[in-house]
Design brief:
The protein is of the alpha/beta class. The protein has a single domain, classed as Alpha-Beta Complex (Spore Coat Polysaccharide Biosynthesis Protein SpsA, Chain A). Helix content is 38%, strand content 19%. The protein has helices spanning 22-30, 50-54, 69-79, 98-109, 139-146, 161-166, 179-189, 216-240, 251-264; strands at 9-15, 37-44, 60-64, 84-87, 93-94, 113-120, 134-136, 157-160, 193-203. Strands 1, 2, 3, 4, 5, 6, 7, 8 and 9 form a nine-stranded mixed β-sheet that branches. Strand 1 (9-15), helix 1 (22-30) and strand 2 form a beta-alpha-beta unit. Helix 7 packs parallel to helix 8 (216-240). The longest helix is centred in the C-terminal third of the chain and has 25 residues, at 216-240. The two termini are 29 Å apart.
């Protein structure tokens, strides 16, 4: 495909005091084999040199008062000009053909979203790979292949921007467990989902990441927000009449999936 005819991909990177990782993140994106990318860095009230680092690169830099990652991602959705949309966490890593493979799969299949492979350094049993490119259209199959009701990481997916906007999908602001409902709704409403071997996102475990913060106040909020997300998940599933694989159906299959990921390193 000619470079000037490739669809634009908008990559939204929320940033809060990420001076240790931001340059690496931007360079990881700019070194992709797929080059028609706009990078939207949303600096969510950083007090370090994150904004100054971002300004050294060809990115769209947005600065706002600290409102949390959900507000930063929502701002990115509003500003994105690309046909496709990806949310990347600043301290994670993608392989160099990540966008090439995901964009190609969406162009080939015409579905609303693509799901990448995942290496989870924090929770090894959630690491998973795909044996072949395959499209899923039925709701039960989409929910099972992703286990999105249990594993809501939004960075696993490349979305059609129009699909996100037409369905008015937004991240609930002020919450820590912010992407479970976004991802669940996206998988449910999509006209189809394609799983893509060879496009790999690595969730890097950092001792100083938000999920690694130690403290009773933070832990209490995380617990409350997780219960809130589970309640929303339950209401959504009941409203639309489906069961959630790994939650209220197929629990044995879900635990076997985790066992294979942890001990067998089996490619699907």
């Amino acid at each position: 495909m000619e470079i000037d005819k490739r669809p634009l991909v908008s990559v939204i990177v929320p940033v809060y005091n990420a001076e240790l990782y931001l340059a690496q993140c931007i360079e990881n994106i700019t070194s992709q084999t797929y080059q028609n990318i706009e990078i939207i860095v949303v600096d969510d009230g950083s007090t370090d040199s994150s904004a100054e680092i971002a300004a050294q690169y060809q990115v769209k830099l947005i600065r706002q008062e600290n409102q949390g990652v959900s507000a930063a991602r929502n701002k990115g959705i509003d500003l994105a000009q690309g046909e496709y949309l990806h949310f990347m966490d600043v301290d994670d890593v993608i392989n160099d053909c990540f966008y090439q493979k995901l964009v190609s799969s969406l162009l080939e299949t015409g579905v609303d979203m693509a799901c990448s492979e995942m290496i989870n350094q924090r929770v090894r049993k959630e690491t998973n790979f795909f044996k072949k490119l395959k499209v899923y259209r039925a709701v039960p199959q989409k929910l099972k292949i992703t286990y999105v009701g249990r594993i809501g990481y939004v960075w696993r997916y490349l979305f059609k921007t129009e699909f996100i906007r037409n369905n008015k999908l937004r991240f609930e602001e002020g919450r820590i467990v912010e992407d479970l409902m976004f991802s669940l709704q996206a998988v449910y409403f999509s006209n189809g989902l394609v799983v893509v071997p060879g496009a790999t996102y690595t969730y890097v475990h950092r001792e100083n990441s938000q999920l690694s913060i130690v403290g009773d106040v933070y832990q209490d909020k995380r617990d409350r927000d997780w219960q809130h997300a589970k309640a929303l998940r339950k209401v959504f599933a009941e409203k639309h009449g489906f069961e959630i694989p790994g939650v209220n159906s197929g629990k044995l299959a879900y635990f076997w999936w985790k066992f294979r990921n942890l001990y067998c390193n089996i490619h699907w």
